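Protein in question reproduced for absentees:

***
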Amino acid sequence: MLSLVRQFVRLLTGKVDASEFALGIFFGVMLAMVPTREVDPATGFLGWNGAWLTLLAACLVLRASLPMTLVTALLVEPLERLALGRASFEVGRTLLDDVLPQAFGAGAAVRLPSWQLHTYWGLGSLVLGLALALPLSLGALFVLRRHLPAWRERLGRNRLVRLLGSSFLFRPIKWLLR
């Protein structure tokens, strides 16, 4: 929790870019939507869903905000278990049975079995997760890019913030927030 507060303070003070926060929201939604349970050990990569591991690696490589990723994933995970998991199953069933050619499921099972794209829940969770993550992260990016300079300026002009920033009591906190 302290890391999230530190990241938010760094965002307001200009040391973190708004895109890092938006990427954190994107990857948080995607990681929460892609199920890690019920993966067939014969097809899973190290017993995990290969798509989930790839998303995690992309999150780390693209330097998304890890605290924002974790908080978003923790907020979306209960929704995924309650309703979105069933919806992603239905999306995957519709795509594999009615929309995509039969060769897609067979080819995915042979070429990328650990990604679970040949299963209803695997394909559906990626598609539904992408449909949820894109508008949420783009909306957050738009809001932060538009309002962040004003928030930073307002925070910089605040006498209380300047006074507390120079106080000997807040020097250890400033050191922690670096």
Q: What stands out?
A: The radius of gyration is 20 Å. The CA atoms of residues 70 and 152 lie 24 Å apart. Helices lie at 2-13, 18-33, 50-61, 66-99, 102-111, 120-157, 159-166, 171-177.
